[in-house]
Amino acid sequence: MKVKTMIMVAAICFAIIPMIAFGVLTNMMVRSDGDTMYVQELNNMASAQVNTLNALQTKVQSDLNTIAAFPAISEYGKTGTFADNGDATANDAIKRYVTDNPVIGSVALVNSSGKIAAGENKGTDYPGFVQYLEYNDETLYFDEVANAAGNGASMFIKKKLGQATLFISYNLGSDNSILARFTSAVSFYSQGNIIVIDSRSVWSSGVTMNTNLQEMYSADVASKVSTLSANGNSGLFEFDGVDGNTKGVLVKADGDGGLAALVYCPSNRNGFYSSKSFTPIVTFGILLAVVSVVAAIMSSKMITKPLGSIEATLSKILRGDHEARIGAISTNEYGQMSRAFNNIVDEIVVSEDRYKVISDMSDNIIFEWNFRTNEVMFSANFNKKFSYRPPSDHFGDSFLMKAKLHPEDADRYRSDLDRLEKGTNFENNEYRILNIYGDYIWILIRTATLKDADGKPLKAVGVMVDIDRAKKSEAKLTAQASYDALTELYNRETIESQIDNEIQLSEMRQAEMAVLFIDVDDFKHYNDDYSHATGDQVLKFLAKTIKEAVDGIGFAGRYGGDEFIAMVRNTETNDPAVISQKLIDRLAEGFDADIGERLGVSVSIGIAVIKDDYNTRVEYLIGKADDAMYSVKKSGKSNYAFI
Fold first, then answer.
1. What 3-state class would DSSP assign to 226?
2. Share of the chain above pLDDT 70, in %
3. Which end of the chain has less Cβ packing within 10 Å, N or C?
4. Which residues, in sequence order, are bridge partners of residue 168?
5. How many Å apart are CA 623 and CA 531, to the nearest integer?
6. Measured between alpha carbons, how far is 384 from 360 in angstroms, rounded to an integer?
7. Residues of 454-477 as b/e, b for ≥16 C-beta within 10 angstroms?
8. What is the 3-class SS of 543-604, one letter each residue?
9. Please, is 114 exposed, middle or buried when counting C-beta atoms within 10 Å of its C-beta (0-12, 13-18, 19+)?
10. 637 φψ region: left (φ > 0), alpha (ψ -120 to 50), beta (else)
11. What percent of the chain has pLDDT over 90?
């Protein structure tokens, strides 16, 4: 049988059928002589209302004490003033509490002048403040002022806090009504009902309020309310109600909360149940309940048994038994689910094994930091490069925390690690770390942060790439570089070697880089119209300006004559167009030459960018930048262009 069919049959057999049978039997057995049951029902309802009223008063007293204990509110009650940001703190605390307790309509902290110091409508007069000062503290009342103003039925409780008074208001007549659970739509014997009465004889059915108890109920009811003691019970009494002759029971809650309840019903409903049929009805109901419970337990075990197999198999897999699978697969939906589960586990195991093999074969080290469990895992090839053995998987014991950084890189690494936990990936991600042989090697760290549906970081997955050879080659080239004698920039041979090395580093960084080919416009003019010495000054000024423009993000060199090369790395953040324009503007400002004049310099700049084609040859890249520079020359000079 299909699982869906089994559930439907179980629902019909163990819910609908017993209810119909019980209703039919009850209807057949109802007779006269129900007065005893009528009285007992009213008294049972009244006893239940005492517990409900006590629970209600306990709830509002808890709200009152909790809010009064908020530090900002307590301090204001003592001093009559808020400390710095105290009003904002009080408002935030009140707002959160009201949000978490939907039965509360509003909370207001009112100063001695009747102004709301914290809460909704802050700074305005609290309605009825002078009138309510006469009411007892920590006693529930119906809010006559709000009701008279047309704002609907509500209740409130207040407490004097020294220099201020705390008011809590509870809405009535809505889904979040604090009285809805025992007054709204409560009925028994078809016409019975309940009203709640405060200590000023204002009453409510949970939807409406009335300030005069005698408008709907007899004077006998009003007099009994005034004489009823705490946790008291008036006993059954008869009075004139809106439905004619009515019987009811008055009860009052414990303590000084002031709430009472009237449970009443027209007297003509006393034959609703028959006392003679009570015993067989209850017996039959208990029998049906026992049968239903036993049947439900047996059927639920039968239905959920396959789920137990799935759960047990999943537990084995989580404990490391990757060979565990669900057996004894049936042909219904559970069988389909079990087969799908087994297939998914097969795929996960294969994928995990593939991932481990790739990780172990790779020279790159892969790690994962789970922010929820605060655990860090490294790929097995980690041990080939570093000797650290963590005592646990906890982040505090991990290599991420315990790695021995070069003193010049340590602060930058710690700063990047702090940002990683907040969801920001590594940026300045090249560091020198002590390896298994006791040497500092250059490591490039790239990370990706995975987030949940709310945008909160779940985990960071990263890779450590050994770039030591490339970085040391770069340092060697720098140390052995030949410089142009006039400009003190790299010469042509060094420029090409450095660009070739930067292409390799950019591939490891998975970053973009750009080459700027810079040519002086009409350079011959300086030599011919002034002197060769002035021309040399122009070249020195140009070299100094280019070097300052790319300092820290690249390098510059003299390619030959009045031609210069600048290399810019990480062009995702270091825009070559912005750098070129700033360079053009700065050169146009000129310099003070030895001839006593201020000379401006105009240049044309060609830009070639590498984004992902890291196999590009240096000569080709420079040639493309040169082509872009000549396109500027042809279109008016003193500008830049991309190829």
1. helix
2. 77
3. N
4. 107, 157
5. 31
6. 10
7. eeebebbebbbbbbbebbebbeee
8. HHHHHHHHCCCEEEEEEECCEEEEEEECCCCCCHHHHHHHHHHHHHHCEECCCCCEECCCEE
9. middle
10. left
11. 33
CA–CA distance from 72 to each of 78, 105, 121, 138, 559 (Å)? 10, 21, 18, 20, 70
pLDDT tens digit sequence for 555-576:
999 999 999 999 999 999 999 9
Q: Is residue 442 helix, strand or coil? A: strand
CA-wise closest residue to 201 among 213, 209, 193: 213
Q: Where are the beta strands (DSSP E) in 221-352?
A: 237-241, 244-252, 260-266
| pTM, to two decimals | 0.40
CA distance 245 to 236: 13
**Using an 8 Å Cβ cutoff, are 172 and 178 in contact?**
yes
Paired tokens of 332: 């219904």
Amino acid letter at 59? K
Sort strands 603-610 and 640-642 into parallel, antiparallel or unpaired: parallel
Query: What is d(CA 428, CA 415) in angstroms, rounded to the nearest whole number?
Result: 10
Q: To the nearest 10°, the Cα dihedral for 311, 315, 316, 319? A: 170
d(CA 91, CA 96) in angstroms, rounded, equals: 9
Where is 285: in which H helix or E strand? helix 275-318
pLDDT digits (tens, 9 = 90+) for 375-431: 998 887 777 778 788 888 898 898 888 899 999 988 988 888 888 888 788 765 789
428 to 281, 351, 399, 431, 576: CA distances (angstroms): 80, 32, 19, 8, 19
Residue type, position 465, single letter: V
Cα separation, 281 vs 272, in Å, equals 14
Q: Which residues contact 133 (CB under 8 A, 6 or more apart)?
A: 165
Read off the DSSP letter of residue 382. Answer: G
Q: What is the pLDDT of residue 295?
A: 66
Amino acid (one-letter) located at 558? R
Instruction: Tell me what pLDDT residue 378 has.
Output: 86
Closest CA to 286 of 22, 11, 9, 15: 22
Tens of pLDDT, residue by residue over 329-385, are 666 766 777 777 777 777 766 666 565 555 555 678 888 999 889 999 888 777 777
Say if residues 444 and 341 touch (Cβ distance below 8 Å).
no
The two structure tokens encoding residue 218 = 């007899």
HSE-up (13 A, CA, CB side) for residue 137: 10
599, 526 contact by CB (below 8 A):
yes
Average pLDDT of span 104-119: 92
